[in-house]
């Protein structure tokens, strides 16, 4: 009974989405080496199918956030101002600087969108290094077990990779300048005398928010896989599902 449940759960995971060109194509030879002919499903086939699904699914998430408006138009992951800075922005908007506030928010999201494509390489490395034990934990885990695996394996590396790109993109967009102007306008108001000057490490804030959004999108894709089986688009997926 346990074996059959295990295989059924694996089957749900391997149907992620129709095959996509790009990440899966680039990694196919390394992540998915040719398997030996096998008469029945075993750990090798299941893990290989899981890797194929994860490669395809993470590509889909990275592509979604990397396109223009990938963050900005997605209300789930749009990068907003932290609460204290939002108070400053509200004051600035009331005295005629709403456009500057809007530009500031847009530039943070654009910086995240430009940094996001780097995630594909780190996700690919994590997939290549996945062990049988990792696969078992993912297969038997909750709705976001694969996302937890990716975050544990890649978050620190992604932060180091994203932060310089985010800083560069925000400098090019004038984000830091807009932030200083926003704070300057606020400091000229009576409210500033009572609440003090808020501080924010922009690069760190946007980098963390960009990663939060990326992993949220990976989690959303994972939930779809577990709950909504789709087309069997490869021989491997057909074998895992249909025993062909």
Task: Explain the overall architecture.
The protein has about 240 residues and is mostly helical. The protein has one domain. Helices cover about 75% and strands about 0% of the residues. The protein is built from 11 helices and no strands. About 35% of the residues are buried. Mean pLDDT is about 75; it is low at about 1-40 and about 240-244.
Q: Enumerate the spans where pLDDT stays under 50 for 5 or more consecutive residues.
A: 1-40, 240-244
- Give the N-to-C terminal Cα separation: 22 Å
Radius of gyration: 22 Å
Broad shape: elongated
Number of helices: 11
> Sheet with the most strands?
none
| Strand content bin | under 5%
Average predicted local confidence, pLDDT: 75
Q: Please give the domain count.
A: 1
Give me the strand/helix succession: HHHHHHHHHHH
**What is the helix content?**
over 70%
Please identify the structural class as seen in this structure.
mainly alpha
Total beta strand runs: 0
Pfam family, one: DUF4197
Keywords: Signal
Signal peptide: 1-21
Organism: Trichlorobacter lovleyi (strain ATCC BAA-1151 / DSM 17278 / SZ) (Geobacter lovleyi)
What order do the helices and strands come in, and which of them pair?
Elements: H1 2-14, H2 23-31, H3 43-66, H4 83-115, H5 119-128, H6 132-139, H7 145-173, H8 175-187, H9 190-195, H10 202-227, H11 235-242
Helix pairs in contact: 1-3, 1-10, 2-3, 2-5, 3-5, 3-6, 3-10, 4-7, 4-8, 4-10, 5-7, 7-10
């Amino acid at each position: 009974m346990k074996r059959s449940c295990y295989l059924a759960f694996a089957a749900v995971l391997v149907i992620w989405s129709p095959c996509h060109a790009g990440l899966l194509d680039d990694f196919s030879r390394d992540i998915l080496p040719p398997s030996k002919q096998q008469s029945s499903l075993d750990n090798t086939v299941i893990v290989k199918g899981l890797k194929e699904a994860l490669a395809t699914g993470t590509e889909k998430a990275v592509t979604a956030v990397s396109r223009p408006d990938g963050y900005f138009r997605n209300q789930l992951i749009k990068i907003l101002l932290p609460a204290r800075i939002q108070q400053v922005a509200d004051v600035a908007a009331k005295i005629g600087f709403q456009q500057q506030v809007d530009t500031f928010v847009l530039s943070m999201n654009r910086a995240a969108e430009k940094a996001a494509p780097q995630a594909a390489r780190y996700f690919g490395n994590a997939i290549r290094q996945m062990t049988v034990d990792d696969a078992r934990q993912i297969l038997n885990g909750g709705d976001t077990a694969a996302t937890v695996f990716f975050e544990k394996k890649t978050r620190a590396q992604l932060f180091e990779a994203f932060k310089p790109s985010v800083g560069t993109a925000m400098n090019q967009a004038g984000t830091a300048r807009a932030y200083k102007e926003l704070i300057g306008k606020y400091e000229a108001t009576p409210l500033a005398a009572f609440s003090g000057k808020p501080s924010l490490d922009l690069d760190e804030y946007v980098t963390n928010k960009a990663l939060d959004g990326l992993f949220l999108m990976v989690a959303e894709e994972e939930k779809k896989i577990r709950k909504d089986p789709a087309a069997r688009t490869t021989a491997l997926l057909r074998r895992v599902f249909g025993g062909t």
